[in-house]
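Internal tracking record. Fields below are filled automatically when a chain is submitted to the structure queue. Please do not edit lines marked as system-generated. If the sequence contains nonstandard residues, flag them in the REMARKS field before resubmitting.
Queue: standard
Priority: normal
Entity type: single polypeptide chain
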Amino acid sequence: MEEQVIEMACPMCQDDQHLRMMAHVDEIPYFGEHTQVTVLCHSCGWRQTDFIPAEGRKPGGWTFDIESETDLSVRVIRSSSCTVCIPELDLEVNPGSAATGFVTNIEGLLVRFIDVVKMVANDIGDDEIENQQLLMHMLHRLQHAGKEGKALRVELLDPHGLSQILDERAIDRELTEDEIESLPVGPDPAVFSA
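SYSTEM-GENERATED OUTPUT FOLLOWS
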């Protein structure tokens, strides 16, 4: 990937000399041609990565039920505009201003949730027993998803339609107008239009 200078200020440090963009076109199996775009600042280290499909997409949602250990290897493409939910545990990760896209698998998604639950559990005081028990329950469900007959549902909600779960059992749908209006979309796409 060759770096190209972007003539705009870094959205984090406002340095207008060190912002660069790299683009790489690749074929993602079962998902088609994509361009991976990375914008980075050599001054402060800020970095933004996203995946843009060659063909246009509609706002969409994907649902997948983790029913066995083999489901942990199902591929997931999550764009920087995607909200990831685990409804049974009332867990949700919304894209923020520094959200990045990534390709992983179901296990990788669960590990991200596990890490956050562990971090929150470490920050809660010993006197908050009810919250500790709730977090330990969440941690157990995340760590045992697909094992011992414990199914768990994962949802991807993407107003830009760039995310997908790559499995024949994954269910896709269009987002409702209310969902599209209420979902955060992550980083300002103006960064990529320079």
